[in-house]
Write a structure and sequence with these properties.
This protein is of the alpha+beta class and 237 residues long. It folds into 2 domains: 62-196, Double Stranded RNA Binding Domain; 201-235, no CATH class. 49% of the residues lie in helices and 27% in strands. It has 7 helices and 10 strands. It has helices at 2-56, 106-119, 161-169, 184-196, 201-208, 212-216, 225-235, and strands at residues 62-75, 78-90, 95-103, 122-123, 126-127, 131-132, 136-140, 143-149, 156-157, 174-180. A hairpin with a 4-residue loop joins strand 2 and strand 3.
């Protein structure tokens, strides 16, 4: 019996270091994984912080406050009042975005909305840097919007939220009409839906594997090569 107990004690003591080694290996592996993950996260954040100021350098953005709404949240002790802001941001050269933010104070809500708008900016192709290339329609919820290109000197014929979008975008001549709701959120989303469908002759020619002059020469009139090249240079800006 004594020999059997001694054998059991020897087997247990011999198995213990193996388990300890396994646990140690696991602990090292977890620590190593955490270290690697931590390093990866730290590097990514540093790169993001370094990249943001470089992108924002030299940009003068146009910020327009479209709408402020007082909102309330019902809690146990009563109601908490706050503010919701809708902001449109653009560079006046073909880039525009919108965002909304909520906070207990108006300035903080505007700051949040502006930061959100800067993250969601889109680029819109403009004709001669002043108007749209073609007509378009936008729809979101109950909001329906029609946008039309206009000749020089027309101005921005738009109301309320739509005017803020086109002024921030850098459009000088456009004719618009909003049909349906007057909710500024739905109007702006419908306007961005219409702007998202805008295409330039240059992008169409690249997609179809042709030249811009080939697209302009399909109007049934006879044009010289010099006239076609001048027209192509005027609209591909």
């Amino acid at each position: 019996m004594a020999d059997e107990t001694n054998q059991e004690v020897e087997t247990v003591s011999a198995a213990a270091p193996e388990g300890g080694e396994r646990e140690g290996r696991r602990g090292r592996g977890r620590g190593g994984e955490r270290g690697e993950r931590g390093e990866g996260r730290g590097r990514g954040r540093r790169d993001d912080r370094r990249g943001k100021p470089e992108e924002e350098q030299g940009e003068e953005l146009i910020e327009k406050l479209v709408h402020i709404n007082r909102v309330s949240k019902t809690v146990k002790g009563g109601k908490r009042f706050g503010f919701a802001a809708l902001v449109v941001v653009g560079d006046g050269k073909g880039r525009v975005g919108f965002g909304h933010g909520k906070a207990r104070e108006v300035p903080e809500a505007i700051t949040k909305a502006t930061a959100s708008a800067k993250k969601k900016m889109i680029r819109v192709a403009l004709k001669e840097g002043r108007t749209l290339h073609h007509d378009g329609k936008g729809h979101f919820g109950a909001g329906k919007v029609n946008v039309r290109s206009a000749p020089a000197g027309t101005g921005i014929i738009a109301g309320g939220p739509m005017r803020a979008v086109f002024e921030s975008l850098g459009v000088h001549d456009v004719v618009t009409k909003s049909v349906g709701t007057s909710n500024p959120y739905n109007m702006i989303r419908a306007t961005f839906a219409a702007l998202g469908e805008q295409t330039s002759p240059k992008s169409v020619a690249q997609r179809r594997g042709k030249k811009v002059t080939d697209l302009l020469n399909r109007d049934g009139h006879h044009h010289t090569e010099a006239q076609l090249e001048a027209a192509a240079a005027a609209i591909t800006e």
